[in-house]
């Protein structure tokens, strides 16, 4: 009995230590977004202020880098979401020649080291004489994000009840109507999860972006460059807002999932 209580208490302590380890960097980032720093280095607490939220877009280069990152992430989410969902649907629903090789390529792309993928994409763009910049970053992000979307949607498709689609066809629905009204709503949670994963992977990617960015600056690249001269508090504020947006989307998605489950 006593050993069981000690084991339970130890498990609780371990759980809270893991949670603290995960949350502490984010808490520090949020806290120093309110730091009334007087110098260029935002590393020592000097007082509480909201003024950096009012001066969020005061640094033009930082704002442009954030806009580039958000635009690339949204486009990556849309393009990789559509292409990856179609690949996941095909792999989960049909058996065709080359499906095994396609599965292997998908998982190989996920397990591939970023430095390898970044260097290989750079070699490809240089060989084809493609100018490095915004579009090469977008192509790179779509390439490594498609696999994550495809695997997520494929897992969802493999759990579907095909009798619902057969019932729709028996009632006279064509292939497009069956897909639009039956298949797509059932796989939509997987499509949404995969697309959000693509957005998250894109907006914080550094290694592959650094290889293929040319003169285009993204948010992670700007932060890396600014570490040598000191990070302004606006970086903490932007990071806080990105984190808050992610939490908000996750909460809304959870509430919608609970609502669908109770319907």
From TrEMBL:
Where does this one sit in the cell?
Answer: Cell membrane
Membrane topology of the entry: Multi-pass membrane protein
Which is an annotated Pfam family here?
BPD_transp_1
Alphabetized SUPFAM superfamilies for the sequence? MetI-like (SSF161098)
Membrane spanning residue stretches: 12-34, 70-92, 104-126, 132-153, 181-203, 237-257
Question: Which key words tag this protein in UniProt?
Answer: Cell membrane, Membrane, Transmembrane, Transmembrane helix, Transport
Q: Among its keywords, does the record have Membrane? A: yes
Residue ranges occupied by any ABC transmembrane type-1 domain in the UniProt entry: 66-253
Per the record, the similarity remark reads:
Belongs to the binding-protein-dependent transport system permease family. CysTW subfamily.
Q: What is this protein called?
A: ABC transporter permease
Q: What is the lineage of its organism?
A: Bacteria, Bacillati, Actinomycetota, Actinomycetes, Streptosporangiales
């Amino acid at each position: 009995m006593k050993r069981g209580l000690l084991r339970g208490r130890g498990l609780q302590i371990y759980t809270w230590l893991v949670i603290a380890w995960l949350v502490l960097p984010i808490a520090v980032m949020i806290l120093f977004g309110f730091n009334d720093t007087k110098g260029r280095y935002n590393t020592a607490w000097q007082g509480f202020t909201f003024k950096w939220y009012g001066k969020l877009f005061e640094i033009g280069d930082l704002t442009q880098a954030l806009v580039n990152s958000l635009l690339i992430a949204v486009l990556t989410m849309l393009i990789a979401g559509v292409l990856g969902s179609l690949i996941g649907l095909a792999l989960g629903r049909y058996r065709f020649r080359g499906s095994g090789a396609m599965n292997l390529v998908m998982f190989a792309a996920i397990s591939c080291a970023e430095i390898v993928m970044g260097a290989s994409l750079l070699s490809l763009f240089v060989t084809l004489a493609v100018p490095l910049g915004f579009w090469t970053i977008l192509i790179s992000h779509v390439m490594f994000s498609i696999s994550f979307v495809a695997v997520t949607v494929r897992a969802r498709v493999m759990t579907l009840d095909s009798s619902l689609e057969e019932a729709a066809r028996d009632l006279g629905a064509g292939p497009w109507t069956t897909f639009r009204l039956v298949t797509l709503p059932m796989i939509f949670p997987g499509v949404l999860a995969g697309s959000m994963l693509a957005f998250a992977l894109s907006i914080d990617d550094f290694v592959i972006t650094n290889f293929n960015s040319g003169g285009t600056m993204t948010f992670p690249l700007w932060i890396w460059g600014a570490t040598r001269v000191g990070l302004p508090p606006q970086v903490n504020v932007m990071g806080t807002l990105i984190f808050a947006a992610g939490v908000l989307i996750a909460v809304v998605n959870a509430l919608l999932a609970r609502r669908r489950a109770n319907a």
